[in-house]
Fold each of these.
Amino acid sequence: MMQEKNSKQKKLLPFLKDKSTIERELFKNRLNEKKLLSSIESALSQKKGSPFVIPKRGQPVIALMSGGIDTTVVIGMLIEFFGLRVYPLIIDRQLPHSRKIKAVCKDLSDYFKNKYPTHFHQPFTISQKMPHQKFSLLYRFENTILFDQQREGIPLQPALYAYLAVQYGKYLRATQNVYPQTIFGGWLPENSEWYRYESLSSLRSTMLQIATMEHDFSWQFTSLAIEKELGLYLSKAQLVAIGHTLGIPLEKTWTCYKGKRHQCGTCPPCWTRQQAFKLAGVVDETIYKEGFNLKNKFNDGREFLRDVKRNFIKK
Ligand SMILES: [Zn+2]
């Protein structure tokens, strides 16, 4: 058993970084504001010795599940590397491609349930429009550029996920006598180049808020991909590489904004996805298929070029 544990964890070693490397990368992004982050972290450390403590093997945790590559690989990592029992939470924002995501999550759940019958629990789905449907006009600003490459986004989105996850934890305690108090998302360091609220400082401030409001510092909220206390600060390509190592059927995950039968392969998320496979040196077995609508094709192209300009030419 011990040997098995070691050989599994060895697979993670090539992806771990030392603290100074992570901090150097972290503070290249000014949104992580060094002083602010260190005060939030020292408040958390005072209570439990460290800003984040990984629960012991066999403990229950909540993991947000979206059907995308990031949250899927995070779920695999939590089980394989940390031996945690995962209670997935799917938050259905009722987007145009929600039906597709539902089917994808079902497929991935079947895979995980079959592979980890004791550690992967039945996902729980909550339908929740974000922003609230009365404010649905705000949705059109999701990709509005504010400054640099920052997008307006859905106000406070990670915190909204965290609040629902806390409620789910309490619901599990009431109904199943398990009490997961650590919540994982799959946000990557590169995400906060787009959305300011996906920075580590933002996630840490949400953790402090939950713990303070609950008056219980057992509550934790983080993204495994940027959890520096574990030596993790992963790019999307690294996440693809880890997923591949773990044998996760990555081609089943869904990235595309469109809810077509196959992913389009040309919208910005599809493009980022393809790049990640390429950089990871992993064969991308995803089926991409563009629609036959010429007008859409033209618009996709323009959108794509705008995105490339925004994200790569500036760097
Ligand atoms: Zn697409």
Amino acid sequence: MSEVLSEMLQPEVIQSRRGGFTRRKFIKGVIAAGATASAAGYLFRGSGVLTPMLSAQDAVERLITVNVNGQQRRVDVPKHETLAMTLRYQLGLTGTKLGCDRAECGACTVLLDGVTHYGCSILTHSVAGREVTTIEGLEQDGQLHPVQQAVMDEGGFQCAFCAPGFAMSMVGMLSKNPNPTREEAAVLLSGNLCRCGDYDKILNTAMRAVELSGTRA
Ligand code: FES
Ligand code: FES
């Protein structure tokens, strides 16, 4: 390294070129700015500037009751929150998956009053008073639903990320058409995607579910 270059790299030289702006000074500056910002927040609150944004009325309207898997659940949700988000992150029902989050893959499929819906595309506020069923609600008195049993019997999913959504769609399929052909089942389940491409095995599962639900009836 040349003498001139090594002199330029001396800490005192670098510091003087930056106008004496050291790392320590920088951190002090950030802390001071943060303190000023939070103090400003208090001033805003104290002066009532934020009051219209967080009114008591708004707070009350966020609280709604949703019937999930036969239980009345009280939840505090902003108006723009989707059902899939509420199920997963407020109620801990993580069987409902979030894949595309835009009504394309069916991973978030749940039943609303017995009919399949994409949970990512429906607002939680709109389901107040309606009956929501998730994969966790299919088992009854310790007995697996025929669709769940069919999934176990066939082992038709590779990574199984899509499995809960497909299972809910199979439940919806059975209530629409209890005895579909394989081709009809393929059409009825066409709102769900499997990234692993296990469609043949998934259809085997669907047909096994048809068989089991017939046996049960
Ligand atoms: S996550 Fe809802 S359709 Fe894909
Ligand atoms: S089994 Fe992997 S996405 Fe369907």
